[in-house]
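Q: What changes when magnesium ion is included in the input?
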Amino acid sequence: MKTVASFEIKYQQHLDPEGHLTQKKLPKFAENRDELLKMYRMMSFVRVFDTKSIALQRTGQLGTYASCLGHEATHVGIGAAMQPEDAFFPMYREYGAQFWRGVKPHEVLLFWGGDERGNNFSGPQHDFAWAVPIATQFHHAAGAALAFKLRGEKRVAVSVIGDGGTSQGDFYESLNAAGAYQLPVVFVISNNQWAISVPLSAQTACATLAQKAIAGGIEGIQVDGNDIIAVRDIMEYALDKARTGKGPTLVEALTYRISDHTTADDATRYRDKHEVDDAKKKEPLIRIRKYLMDSGAWDQQQEDKLLAECAAQMDTEVQLYKDAGKPPVESMFDHMFANLPESLVAQRDAAVAEGQHHG
Amino acid sequence: MKTVASFEIKYQQHLDPEGHLTQKKLPKFAENRDELLKMYRMMSFVRVFDTKSIALQRTGQLGTYASCLGHEATHVGIGAAMQPEDAFFPMYREYGAQFWRGVKPHEVLLFWGGDERGNNFSGPQHDFAWAVPIATQFHHAAGAALAFKLRGEKRVAVSVIGDGGTSQGDFYESLNAAGAYQLPVVFVISNNQWAISVPLSAQTACATLAQKAIAGGIEGIQVDGNDIIAVRDIMEYALDKARTGKGPTLVEALTYRISDHTTADDATRYRDKHEVDDAKKKEPLIRIRKYLMDSGAWDQQQEDKLLAECAAQMDTEVQLYKDAGKPPVESMFDHMFANLPESLVAQRDAAVAEGQHHG
Amino acid sequence: MAKVAMVEAITQALAYELEHDPAVVVLGEDVGVNGGVFRATSGLQQRFGKQRVMDTPLAEALIAGMSIGMAAMGMKPVAEIQFSGFIYPAVDQMINHAGRLRTRTRGRLHVPMVLRAPSGGGIHAPEHHSESNEALFAHMPGIRTVMPSSPARAYGLLLAAIRDPDPVVFLEPTRLYRMNKQEVEDNGEALPLDTCFVLREGGDVTLVSWGAMIHETLQAAAKLAEQGVKCEVIDLATVSPIDFETILESVEKTGRLVIIHEAPKNCGVGAEIAATVAEKAIYSLKAPIERVTGYDIPMPLFKLEHDYMPSVERVMQGIRKALEA
Amino acid sequence: MAKVAMVEAITQALAYELEHDPAVVVLGEDVGVNGGVFRATSGLQQRFGKQRVMDTPLAEALIAGMSIGMAAMGMKPVAEIQFSGFIYPAVDQMINHAGRLRTRTRGRLHVPMVLRAPSGGGIHAPEHHSESNEALFAHMPGIRTVMPSSPARAYGLLLAAIRDPDPVVFLEPTRLYRMNKQEVEDNGEALPLDTCFVLREGGDVTLVSWGAMIHETLQAAAKLAEQGVKCEVIDLATVSPIDFETILESVEKTGRLVIIHEAPKNCGVGAEIAATVAEKAIYSLKAPIERVTGYDIPMPLFKLEHDYMPSVERVMQGIRKALEA
Ligand SMILES: Cc1ncc(C[n+]2csc(CCOP(=O)(O)OP(=O)(O)O)c2C)c(N)n1
Ligand SMILES: Cc1ncc(C[n+]2csc(CCOP(=O)(O)OP(=O)(O)O)c2C)c(N)n1
Ligand SMILES: [Mg+2]
Ligand SMILES: [Mg+2]
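A: The predicted holo structure follows.
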């Protein structure tokens, strides 16, 4: 039998878990210390945000919350590589990318606190809100990318999905459409090895998730998702490619969900402690901090100061969240349609009356 | 960047369009002339069936009909490689496979003639009926394969999809699940280059459709779908592999839809005549007939006799189809549930009364 | 003015908006060079180019989902689903996103898309090509569902649907595509959404129907008129949200209501109309509300499709029952 | 006999059938070692092995479609969809295949599958985790839709659903999973499908509800009893097809009907009940039929979910309205 097609999947890493460079040449942005520090600061804030949010949930001050512990490099790397005019289509835990793009931490809290106002956020007004139904957001990103392409705008749509999400039909349909239309879109798989209790090995027989790109006829690249330099590097590559009309990319970021799936989950039911301990050694903050310290760009004093600042900032955000109170009852109706139909006007009035009745 | 995975797609062909062997070694079944003749006879009958069915539609004696002109090698090859205990999950034009498995031609006519009784057919009782909603049948095949595997039965599920169908999420979900569970299933893409008016190049950026298997972590093979020897060869390989617990395969059969999409379609609106003329030279009957004649297994006299037999057989089938008449009105209700709920009993009675009323 | 059939009126409406609003794009399976399997987009790609009228890969969830993404970015996609029996993969995107994005983001994003699909039976088509599933969409918050019943209403309502800033599911009765040609002025004038159309006035009984069944309903009304029965015929047109004002006003006048639809009865749109009328106008009702509908079975293959779909005779029986009670 | 909550009763029913019928398999996302996100399948994989209790890849269309394939080959899959808000990708398989395969093949193949999904609000959950969408399935021919409202009924109805030779969508009110423990004998005795349950007898007004809202309904009935009002409370249980006999009998006695459900009002199951009762028992009705339901909006995020869901107070208002009319 003759061979009619062949494919390769490449892997990118700059910083190993010990904070050592694995390649001689650094991407341009990484030669700029301020830029690296900016990313590191954001990663640190995200971690403080995460810890505090879990605490809020545990003390009954927040609803179910999806932790991003361990994903900081992937998320901040995505955010840092994008332009404000690009459009972001998150799943539900990419706070690092959203904060970078201007979403306020208390807005994220509002969402998990059961308040839609959190989705009317301070980030780019065209960015989508979370997509809880797994994989559905890829279609929105493809559609946005198609809009950008048709209008000749130099904008890119970026969407994120989990490893579990790659089992959904929507995921593949989008990859295929992005290939067929050569869309300016970057699809990112945040492969944290688990979909709630289902390990990657039970989710698919694939050795890599990047290889799923082959089914869409598009490029797939694997990257160390705990390495902020590699993530931003590959994202910049893929964004630039998309922006210059050279088509879509699927990026698989290899990371690990160190936390429970959400605060409603208990991962000890299904996951080996050793695996988690091992992952903790490879998590993203350690290596970039080590690299920055080794290269003299950072020290313990700055670190302590940063953490204090993050904590203070978080306190402010938590206060904003708490001050938001309950949205008015009529807000459930007011944004159903641009022009509210009669039947909904009647229902709104009844609900408001009912709400007043109960105080 | 280092390479972390690599893949190849192979292509199989034994008979070229001129009827010459392209490989020295023939598969075992192909050394048996009777077996080859049996397949050739079936391919010939299918063509007669197809021509006649289109004529029935054109003369108002059949509903919309989907021609299989040009697909005979793919369809008969699939049927011939399967065992009766295997289960078949067709799309809507694989008459060659179904006839081989015992479905009667008049039963196929009944279906296109608007009569569900055609689906209560003489083929294996576990075989599915047509799946008109594109790609949905792959899930049924995956489920059947899972049942076979769980029960330790040495049976294989086989399903067919079109090139257009490979854009549907269901297609990929099944491939992925088949890989994850290592199911005894063979998925076949009948790549006839067109999905109604949409050419393959607009459907996907993929160079081959077999490469979509890589997204499911399973093997994908391309085969000349107009070469009955190659199709049966690869199908036997994939079936044997599945039957012996070695997992699923995606087979892409390269063929061409010489006809309109269905009798409701007019392909001259969107398709170049030259392309079709070219395809006609490569169609599946010419080459196997030539091969059989060249090797002395077949001559013009036998050919004439065969065509006369096929025509006679088809006349009988058409008569059976016509004799079937209209099914009773209550048959729309009687198979809704094993135990018909009260509300449906009432509706059935009303419909029957109504039917009698109108005669 | 030339007379046009419904499918041509639809093509005209699409062409009008493509010409006047650069944000409008048409997309779907085979809508390009082929002009759609029913020719509703015939000639549009040739006229407006491949950037405005696009074939899509064969995937309905994708078609709906991409339309949402495009719409939220300021375009006005008019997507075609080839037959309403193949619309189900799009249900997730419609209910979970199209109908929710505006309220989810408290107005920041919205979804001015139209999802068109041929719908209903009576054209001798294969399995899954004759479905009536408007009730599924009617039950979805945040979505308008519209079904035209004449060339003029198809033209005007489709224009309204495209211009509306919110998602509209637009179900076109295939049975009417080439029936009853009508003069339709191609002047870009939209008809109002959320409004019924009173097609025939009468004081004895109110008939509410939509889509293709309007024709059996009108025929039944005409036949009964010969016997002196005056039917008021209301075309629901916007199947959700329902314009109850018009219906209630009529029922208050006639005291009798017959609802006619092709879709299965159980939890159909007829149920909502009957329930609301029974709630709001019970004291006006002189007889039980009749529903003449499809049965609670899938549309059978075509040998039996006319045993499934309400005939003029069945509609008349329903009306007589309402009159005699 | 130990008291069990609904979720435990469900686990018991699953275990009973897994033990007694080798054709039964349980499948879904996280149903294996994790025992489901609500623990409905807790311990089952450990007890029956990975061949009987299987995690699936994350794909709802696949879960439904594979279940159809398995069922047609003689197995009895009991599939879990993690939340009913994620059931929509399975809609295509359910309406186009599960509900049609038997009639499509004129009885040759059938689909003894159960599609379980937690459903409804009130548990302070994130977006899409609190949906009530039984009406979508109720409108689908060939499918039974069942919603239990107590541990005992969950046990008996789930057994019946698994044993039934046709597809059943089994929607479990999450809000009840851990509420109101009850003694349930794990004796493998099924309850009948297609039958309502009269939970409280009374001659003044008939209350029909199902799922979690049964509890607000019973509370309202209890409160009104203190004021001397005798409510008859009917648990619909099988949401489709509906047991109208029981309902009509009750309405003929009371002359008043209030329907209570959490799902949106428009084209909800309440509409069907109201429409049919208004048709068949209009002369028994002493007052308009009231529906106390969710609004025609998506379930809001949880700060407002209790403003969406009918409260005991709203149910009582509805009853009072029916009584005063
Ligand atoms: C369509 C759909 N099905 C099921 C769920 C329930 N669910 C929420 S998160 C999750 C697992 C997701 O895993 P993965 O995609 O790997 O993302 P991760 O949470 O690990 O980041 C599931 C099953 C959902 N949100 N959407
Ligand atoms: C889900 C779905 N969408 C749309 C259709 C309408 N339709 C019928 S056949 C067809 C094209 C199929 O093309 P392909 O998969 O290549 O198969 P072929 O007909 O060429 O054998 C379409 C769009 C359908 N049957 N099902
Ligand atoms: Mg994951
Ligand atoms: Mg094709």
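Observations recorded in class: Residues 3-183 of chain C form a domain with the Rossmann fold fold (CATH 3.40.50.970).
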